[in-house]
Amino acid sequence: MLGNKAVARGLYEAGVCFVSSYPGTPSTEVTEEAALYDEIYCEWAPNEKVAMEAAFGASLAGRRSFCGMKHVGLNVAADPLYTMSYTGVNAGLVIVVADDAGMHSSQNEQDSRHHAIASKVPMLEPSDSAEALAFTKLAFELSERFDTPVIIKMCTRVAHSQSVVETGERTVPVKEYEKNIAKYVMMPANAIRRHPIVEARTAALREYAETAPLNRVEMGGTALGIITSSTSYQYVREVMGDDVSVLKLGMVNPLPEKLIRDFAAKVDRLVVVEELDPIIEEHVRRLGLEVSGKDILPLEGEFSQNLVAKALGKDVPAGLSLGETVPVRPPVMCAGCPHRGLFYTLNRNKCTVLGDIGCYTLGAVAPLAAMEMTLCMGASISAVHGFNKALGADNDKKAVAVIGDSTFMHSGMTGLANIAYNQSVSTVIILDNSITGMTGHQQNPTTGYNIKGDPAGKIDLEALCRAMGFARIRVVDPYDLSACDKVLKEELAAPEPSVIISRRPCALLKYVKHKAPLAVEPDKCIGCKSCMRIGCPAISIRDGKARVDATLCVGCGICSQLCPKDAFHSTGKEA
Question: Distance between CA atoms of 347 and 331, rounded to whole angstroms?
Fold first, then answer.
């Protein structure tokens, strides 16, 4: 099974009844796979904070619950997490957070172990799919045994690799809800009494970690002892074999002490192999042990077998070379992407574009080059307000915010409320492509469908923006360049806040019916390359003339609107 699928199987077997998550690579498939089990209620929440709070409510009601997210999503959910550590749980509550070392699909590569340590919540870290399933089931037992939420830390390699698992049967433990104001109402007088309970629980968990089957010693050669976890364990085993002894940690918070001291006493040299921050290494140093780690291994990026082998003094065989330079292939928006026309218009009007998190972040890439800032979910709207307020009379009124529909529902609404309330003359553009595009076409509150594709509540963006205090709300089709240009100019000139909704469904949605692909009449084409300014992957220049790849073109017609010689025409047949 895929690692994420194995977690979902673990949820099923552990008797989970409630799942609420927000999609984020590399965690998304856990919830998608869980949704395939009819016995589990699953939903996409507007954001990770809401998902975790909903899961807490289900736990409070006495049903095992789960929420999943990527590492930056845990930042959003940190508010409930840190206080849930104080309240504890009723039925088991497990959180999966998937880290993205190497930043394959993320804006940073933070280490989620810091959140576990700071919130005083136990964290388990599987190293393959079999452990992903087993650790998930065990996490619910620990959650109920120690009265705490439990975090399972996945990473890109474990989440998206496959290994053999052994499945079991489903059992559904049920607890009754009991009113307990002192435990669950976290006003200061109650919270201050819960803190000592958290510290006592941490001590008990640390004692558990000393003998837990999650942490195991694999003795081999004693010249070198390695403490490791997650995929780093796999790399160490592949590279070093039985030449070394290994302390494999499956519970990374809290970390054991006696187990580490005993292991260190059996080896001549001690090395910690862990991706990202030196959390295990610093723990070992605090125990007064001499250890190597980040002095020979990097603080950033994913590890690999060769990287680990080189750091540990093993010979690394020379790799094979192609003997020629392979051209770089940067990511680009898909052919027919509805965001392309809007970004072209923004670039043409020389706007300062503060962007957000989504596939539309590719609007920053040449030749569109129409985005100048991306920080985190929802930051575009808050930032454009600050940007415009700070410039005041010096503002040229050309700074705009660009945000996707799913990201807007995630954390854009509060920023929009700030603009309405504090009245900055700002224009916000919502790119409504009718789906959560970047993470693989998940539904969101604006689409009208739930995680299973069934009809659901649908938020009307125009009505919502109007209710938040915006009088100027415009809707445009991004395939119509002249309309986009006209509306953008009018809203930038308006002396009040405004919202533009750029509405066109994602070109990759299965139900979207495309027009016939376009073709170029060579006799008309003068090779001016005007059509190349939109960066469409379906268009190329060969022998000085534009050409269209009919297998990619969806007939959106943006290129034809740029051609001064009307050289593009429809082929009249569907691709």
Answer: 19
Question: Residue 397: its pLDDT value, please?
Answer: 75
pLDDT level of residue 573 (50, 70, 90 thresholds)? low
- Phi, psi at 377, each rounded to 5°: -60, 120
CA dihedral 434, 437, 441, 443 (to 10 degrees): -50
User: Are the C-beta atoms of 493 and 464 separated by less than 8 Å?
Assistant: no
Cβ atoms of residues 98 and 27 within 8 Å: yes
| Percentages (nearest 5) of helix, strand, coil residues in the chain | 40, 15, 45
**Res 376: pLDDT:** 93
Q: What is the dihedral of CA 132, 135, 141, 146, to 10 degrees?
A: -120
Distance separating the N- and C-terminal Cα atoms of the chain: 35
CA distance readout (Å), 567 to 105, 300, 324, 340: 38, 49, 37, 20
Question: DSSP assignment of 131-188, as one string?
Answer: HHHHHHHHHHHHHHHHTS-EEEEEEHHHHH-B-----------B------HHHH--SH
% the chain with pLDDT above 70 = 99
- Cα(355)–Cα(381) distance, rounded to whole angstroms? 8
- What lies within 8 Å, CB to CB, of 332 at 6+ separation is 362, 365, 535, 537
Mean pLDDT of 440-462: 94
State mean pLDDT over 302-311: 94
Q: For the whole model, what pTM was predicted?
A: 0.92
Ordered alpha helix ranges (H), 279-398: 279-286, 305-311, 339-348, 379-391
Place of tokens 């002894």: 245
- Per-residue pLDDT band for 394 (boundaries 50, 70, 90) equals confident
| Spatial CA neighbour of 525 closest among 499, 470, 563, 551 | 563
Residue 574 pLDDT class (50, 70, 90 cuts): low
The DSSP symbol for 321 reads: -
Strands 568-570 and 518-520: antiparallel
Reading the block at residue 199, the tokens are 């510290």
Does residue 228 sit in helix, strand or coil? strand
77: its two tokens: 């959910």
In angstroms, the CA 546 to CA 40 distance is 53
Nearest to 398 by CA among 488, 500, 533: 488
